[in-house]
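Deliverable D4.2, example record:
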Amino acid sequence: MKNDRLILVSNDDGIFSNGIKALAEVASEFGEVAVVAPDRQQSAVGHSITINEPLRAVPFKLESGLMGSAINGTPADCIKLAHDQLLDRKPDLVLSGINHGSNAGINIIYSGTVSAATEGTILGYPSIAVSCVEFGEDADLTGCMEAARRAISFVFKNGLPAGITLNVNAPAGPFRGIKWTKQADTRYTDEFEPRVDPHNRPYYWITGRLEILDQGEDLDVNVLNTGYASITPIQYDLTAYRVFKEMSKIDI
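Output generated by the structure prediction step:
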């Protein structure tokens, strides 16, 4: 069964990232791996796609010996192009990551990593995004790899409902366990630092801090703070069903 599987691996940190090498290594335990990823850093591009310039796919060999394609586009571009042109058969699973930096809370909507997995879900494939809380390229990814391994095993055993993506986050370092979580209600308090370039032209550099707006032991951010990995089922259907029924009774 393993030999019949094809697993598509992508990310938003680029094909040179340590995280994608680690995720491809885990994926290879479950089947044949195809790597299709951006040729450069594409963090925080969300679900953007390229429409004003051509996309190019350049063959690339990872240090592990795996062959892949480097794309001059976004994470969502990579999944779309792999689906339509680059793969000789349809994948059994789409993986995105391992991202360097948390994609819990509000980060989900900014994340190119999560968007690559979500694009896989849109195209009808079971899909998982995997992120490490630590940003450093030299972060210890062993716990993230084990969290990914358990999420992959779960999906191959149980499947996923249509429209659902799994968002996995884990601290750096050894694996301590993984818990099902909800997305925490968070937001950034943005600060734009004014600067001046060498040509005396003003520009702004964004900084800020994350605010947690709710509390609960089953929230992704809080679970991560206890040292456990989090796994959150998310969906791309943004309809606010909780208020739709009442609002639809009101004429506009």
